[in-house]
Amino acid sequence: MSALPVAVHLGPLTFHLYGLGLAIAAYVAYEYAERRLERRGYPIRHFGRYVAALLVAGLVGARAANVATNWSYYRGHVGSWFAVWEGGLASFGGIALALPVALHLRRRYWPDTTALAFADAIIPAIVAGWALGRVLGPQFMVDGGGHQTSQWFGLSYHGQVGKRVPVPLIQGAEDALLWLSLLRIERRRPRVGVVTGVALLVWGLVRSLDERWLLGQQSHSGSLGVQGAGLVMAFVGVVLLVRRPAAKA
After folding, report:
1. Looking at per-residue confidence, does 95 or 183 come out higher?
2. How many domains does the chain contain in total?
């Protein structure tokens, strides 16, 4: 099978499927999260502003983390620091910067709710968007596959020799199953924070294991960083699940 396409050309315009796929996934997650908030009685007049701030913070954090973990290259290519269209975004870097922005703006726009109640409302939408994004984004980017394989399920990716483990499809399936599990848990009306705790525990652990066994460049600082960040996220999820109900945050 030939390598998957990475772009489509319409006259003089070139559309990179990686970015286009992520944009579609982000839009779906936005609409889904807004509807979930509405159903819970949250005012949504500031939600667009809230999401825009998170997208900017996430993009800056993801790019900064990628530059930092590939400093041996970027220190000699300063002009490429901001060339996000060339690829190179680290998801955990985006989360690290977007999280404090999210917490600050949540207190500003929705001061009458708790951080965990708000997280329980939007995290299933984020997981659903992430599942869609893995399939529509990294599946069509250069170097999008995992380890080389000779198995029947291997796919060819631009920039990589031989058939590769289709990690984006695997991660999309993992995230979709997590999303369905969160909805099932939610229907049982658990205490505040359980949906968020399960999401952090499962997603962090699975992301760390995927990085180690399917993608792992064991001596690469970025790979080790992803594994460590995933375990930290899983630990936070455990803390939320075993904690006693707290007062309003």
Report:
1. 183
2. 1
